[in-house]
Amino acid sequence: MNVIKIDDINDKRVAIFTEYNEAQLYHYFEPNGGVFIAETPNVIERALNRGCEPMAFLVEEKAFESEVVQELLSKTSAASEEDELGVFVAELNVINKITGFNLTRGVLAAFRRPTLPAPSDLLESSSKVAILEDVMNPTNVGAIFRSAAALGVDAIFLTHDSADPFYRRAARVAMGTSFQVPWTYFDKGSNYVDILHNADYKVVSMALKDNAIPLSSPELKQHDKLAVIFGTESTGIKEDTIANSDYVTIIPMHHDVDSLNVAAASAVTFWELCGK
């Protein structure tokens, strides 16, 4: 591990933390994968436990001296494939020039993006799965992952228009559980409902439809393999997806409230169908 003191946030050696947006990081090594930035010791530790390869750290000087960060860096040395992993240390007045750094608890880490599993492999090894169809808000994606980890969901599948679970805000809201719950994307344009059916899953769409049954209905709990679909916050699940689902279900509401936010709805659904 190579500890390097920097005095200027424009130092090119820390450009990966300062000069790239999320989309640019995603394609950083194109065509051979990308990079994600993890923040807070808890999230970084879970990324390491997932087996993600660290590339560099950016640490506030006082945080660097803390026991939590020192323990984290000792684990990082063992996990890194680099002989000289760069750990860049800067004073607070330097590092605070990065927007949002005050949310990181003093440490950022750059990782190579791991290879995601094939959908078929995850479906074979799972029985209760969630599908995020075009869920574009990273805060909602992160909250769904946290609920999934807590309430017994085996895996999460996303369509390509959904927010990236490794996006900094998503991973932070998820408390790093996006590195614990197995997940992957369905191929763009694929008929994923057919894929689920071919893998012997019963498909449940969460949607406000006249034919929807209550989430507590006994028939929803009679299947060994269940896939629950959540839709985008604005328009919900696509009509074709709903039409090809085995069940359409709702969470009964009171006081003329029609529905919950997708993240809150996922927690209720996971508790009812997976966590009990």
UniProtKB/TrEMBL annotation:
Any one of the GO BP annotations: RNA processing
CDD domains registered for this protein in UniProt: SpoU-like_rRNA-MTase
tRNA/rRNA methyltransferase SpoU type domain segment(s): 130-270
Keyword flag Nucleotide-binding: no
Gene Ontology molecular function, alphabetical: RNA binding; RNA methyltransferase activity
The keyword Methyltransferase appears for this protein: yes
Highest taxon listed in the record's lineage: Bacteria
Keywords tagged on the record: Methyltransferase, Transferase
UniProt xrefs under PANTHER family: RRNA METHYLASE, RRNA METHYLTRANSFERASE 3
Name of the protein in its database record: RNA methyltransferase
Organism of derivation: Pseudobutyrivibrio xylanivorans
